[in-house]
Specification:
With 134 residues, the chain is mostly helical. The chain has one domain: Four Helix Bundle (Hemerythrin (Met), subunit A). Helix content is 81%, strand content 0%.
């Protein structure tokens, strides 16, 4: 079975969900619904990214090649780790008892989100290079 199309589809959906969550957080904070949409889209991004990782693993496994050997795979794993960290930072903002730490957590969440988006973009470009599109 060719898992490439499932890998690309899952991760394209994850990227679109994450990008939409960023746009909502940036431009729609005045709306009552923004935080629910932001959380839901980021949860979808994480779930689709995990599915994309599984498809990548299955694709490499079926080819008999070694895992995490090319820049795309290294970037992808790093991006997945950052993507998993984002909800933890986001939830910490609401759960922390020391109110003085909230601005620090918000800043960390914001900058980690930007880094995650940049890493996701770099991973996509590395993947397009790997399959010969770029």
């Amino acid at each position: 079975m060719n898992f490439l199309i499932f890998h690309i589809g899952s991760l394209a959906t994850a990227f679109i969900a994450m990008s939409s969550a960023i746009v909502i957080a940036r431009f729609f904070k005045s709306k009552k619904w923004w935080i629910k949409a932001h959380k839901a889209l980021n949860l979808a991004a994480v779930l689709f990214a995990l599915a994309g990782f599984v498809f990548a693993f299955l694709m490499v496994q079926s080819s008999g090649g070694p895992h995490i050997r090319v820049p795309h795979a290294i970037l992808g794993l790093s991006t997945l780790i950052l993507l998993l960290l984002m909800p933890v930072l986001g939830q910490a903002i609401f759960k922390i008892r020391d109110k003085k730490k909230i601005p620090v957590l918000k800043k960390a969440h914001r900058y980690a989100g930007r880094l995650t988006a940049a890493m996701f973009t770099a991973t996509i470009l590395a993947g397009l290079l790997l399959i010969g599109i770029l």
